[in-house]
Design goal:
The structure holds 2 protein chains of 2 kinds.
Chain A (H helix, E strand, L loop, with lengths): L2 E14 L2 E14 L3 E5 L6 H8 L7 E10 L2 E2 L5 H8 L4 E4 L13 H12 L6 H15 L15 H12 L6 E5 L7 H16 L5 E6 L2 H4 L5 E6 L2 E7 H6 L4 H9 L40 H5 L5 E4 L2 E3 L7
Parallel strand pairs in A: 3-8, 3-9, 6-7, 7-8
Antiparallel strand pairs in A: 1-2, 1-4, 4-5, 9-10, 10-12, 11-12
Helix pairs in contact in A: 3-4, 4-5, 5-6
Chain B lengths: L1 H4 L1 E13 L8 E13 L3 E5 L6 H8 L7 E6 L2 E2 L5 H7 E4 L3 H4 L6 H7 L10 H14 L4 H4 L9 H15 L3 E5 L7 H16 L4 E6 L2 H7 L2 E6 L2 E7 H6 L4 H9 L13
Parallel strand pairs in B: 3-8, 3-9, 6-7, 7-8
Antiparallel strand pairs in B: 1-2, 1-4, 4-5, 9-10
Classes of the chains: A alpha/beta, B alpha/beta.
């Protein structure tokens, strides 16, 4: 399996005038061909920022402080902003952001959106008929009738719109797709369709690797092979999905799983616990492990020294002193 | 009917039609279509449905923020439109999806919380006000010192939503309508909020209408569930009954399509 993403010791954040908010602190992430990687964490944990830093979307006030991101053998930060726009985004890596399901311009036919997208990426763009052929092929692969190209967004159903957006964003054959909370505003049935679409993109080799960012673990687990749990700008755990869910190592992961409401009648008689307290202020994070003020197993060491992210068991990485004896 | 007699709030044949276009001559949208249900004292009743199914319109109708096209709502056998607004709102209060929209962002939290005393007919001393505010905050697990002097933007969504609940508790209504109160809150805080609602109904005897699109949350806190689809109630019953034998295709789809932690969807690629 070849490595598609190699992000090493990424550190970055936002300039806030007098101070700097470090939203992502020393995060390393690898993704191989054919892999679907889920990034989970609660709001403000840095998951979206990490995604932006990985693909080089460092638009001020966002800034990379340290680290390296290599996607498909391209060193992202060796490229200028203009070069990233020309050769990286859309062609090597694409992001599907949160509000993307409403991203289609209502006054434009789908094919006109397609023309715009393709033309923006080439100094000498292919002819209209060539672009149309490309689009038809991709629409077919994704299971959307190419007649949709001649329609306005309003004429498409919700499911067709989703397919159109996915088809357009993968038109230039990026190897790496980042989906940032694409399902969060959708009802469950539309959500399921989107999950199926993303799953299909990998299984049919339309994209090589997928990173799926979400706060909803039950959604992530539906398609992700591996999961990465983030908290307060740090990666706390990376393991296979089944392990993360059934045998979590990090106390934060454990509590996160306990916060998920299972859909069964006995749930009414249960009292789920949640996680008391709030995530730390990133301008002034706690010493040692960032989760220690909320952790039920905290030891003196946790306050003093930050645990590194290490392989505690085979294939299971965790950053917690309980497992790093 | 026996059930109806003990009902605190009764909704009968409620219909709300919105009209679009100039002077309402355009299309008719039936947001709520002949809906009837009741709410008992101390009960948590969930309204489940997808966006556009009419759940929020029902909330707004019950809160007297909208006039129904037809149908009636009774509070303890009095038509709510015959009750003075302030008196009604001391009995029926609401919490909405976006807590930041419910607080004036220029005011400190303390001022917003104390504004609720305007709903009361009698004059209340400052000392009494302080006491009530502190009591309410402590009940929902917020430290008054940490939140009262702050502006809304300095607080997290979970804290804000709990402040809204505190505001509700100061008023001490009989009915709380919670419209998607947890949708802007993280999972770890979500269950904590839901637990507060549960306690309010079980310990303080409050009646709660919980509006959500998330079927697991509804099942976690409700005694009874109403499922809405396109303005109509298509399912009405206790949680167990609906989970085990859903009748309407929409409810069936809702239950099968919700992602579950210990179950994986099986996709067959076509």
């Amino acid at each position: 399996m070849s490595l598609v993403l190699e992000a090493r010791h990424i550190e970055g954040g936002y300039d806030l005038g007098s101070s700097f908010l470090k939203a992502v602190d020393d995060c390393s992430l690898y993704a191989y061909e054919g892999e679907m990687l889920g990034v989970a964490g609660e709001s403000g944990c840095g998951k979206s920022t990490l995604a932006k830093l990985i693909m080089g979307l460092t638009k001020p006030p966002l800034r990379l402080v340290k680290g390296k991101s290599i996607i498909d053998d391209i060193d992202v930060y060796k490229l200028s902003w203009k070069e990233r726009k020309k050769i990286l985004w859309g062609k090597v890596v694409t992001m599907i952001p949160q509000a993307s399901m409403n991203a289609l311009n209502p006054t434009k036919k789908i094919k006109d959106v397609v023309f715009d997208v393709v033309r923006e990426k080439y100094s000498t763009p292919p002819s209209k008929s060539e672009i149309l052929d490309m689009a038809k092929k991709r629409f077919d692969e994704i299971g959307l009738d190419p007649v949709a190209l001649d329609m306005y967004p309003i004429e498409l159903s919700g499911g067709m719109k989703q397919r159109a957006i996915i088809a357009i964003s993968t038109l230039l054959n990026p190897s790496f797709l980042i989906a940032d909370e694409p399902t969060s505003a959708l009802d469950v049935s539309t959500q399921k369709l989107l999950l199926e679409l993303l799953y299909m993109l990998i299984k049919r080799n339309i994209v090589k690797t997928l990173i799926f960012i979400s706060h909803d673990i039950a959604t992530l687990r539906q398609i992700c092979d591996k999961m990465c749990i983030m908290y307060a700008g740090k990666i706390l755990e990376i393991s296979d999905t089944e392990d993360v869910i059934n045998r979590p190592l990090h106390p934060y992961t454990e509590r996160l799983m306990e916060s998920v409401i299972p859909l069964m009648p006995s749930v009414r008689k249960k009292t789920l616990k949640g996680i008391p307290g709030a995530p730390p202020n990133l301008l002034n994070p706690p010493s040692g492990c960032r989760f220690h003020p909320r952790c039920r197993y905290a030891m003196p060491l946790c306050k003093e020294k930050e645990p590194p992210l290490r392989e505690a068991k085979k294939g299971r990485f965790v950053s917690c002193w309980l497992h790093l004896g | 009917m026996n059930m109806k007699e003990e009902a605190l709030l009764r909704v009968e044949n409620l219909t709300k039609i919105f009209r679009t276009g100039f002077l309402g001559k355009g299309e008719k949208i039936i947001a709520v279509n002949d809906v009837s249900f009741f709410l008992k004292k101390g009960e948590v009743l969930s309204l489940i449905g997808e966006s556009g199914s009419g759940k929020t319109t029902i909330a707004r109708l019950i809160l007297k923020l909208l006039k129904p096209t037809s149908g009636r709502i009774y509070y303890e056998d009095t038509d709510i439109w015959e009750m003075p607004d302030k008196a009604y709102w001391r009995k029926v209060q609401a919490i909405f999806q976006d807590p930041y929209a419910s607080f004036n962002s220029f005011y400190k939290v303390e001022r917003t919380l104390k504004n609720v005393f305007k709903l009361f007919p009698d004059k209340i001393s400052e000392g009494e006000k302080d006491k009530k505010v502190h009591e309410a905050l402590e009940k929902i697990g917020l430290n008054p010192k940490e939140v009262l002097g702050k502006h809304p933007f300095e607080l997290s969504g979970g804290q804000m939503q709990r402040l809204l609940l505190a505001r509700c508790l100061i008023i001490d209504p009989e009915v709380i309508i919670a419209d998607e109160p947890t949708s802007m809150v993280d999972a770890s805080m979500r269950v904590i909020l839901l637990n507060i609602f549960k306690e309010l109904s079980k310990k303080a005897g409050k009646s709660i209408i919980f509006i959500t699109h998330d079927i697991s949350q509804a099942f976690y806190i409700s005694d009874r569930v109403l499922v809405m689809y396109r303005g109509r109630i298509v399912e009405n019953g206790p949680v167990e009954q609906i989970l085990f034998s859903p009748q309407h295709p929409y409810t069936k789809r809702l239950i099968s399509d919700v992602p579950k932690l210990h179950e994986k969807f099986k996709f067959t690629l076509t």
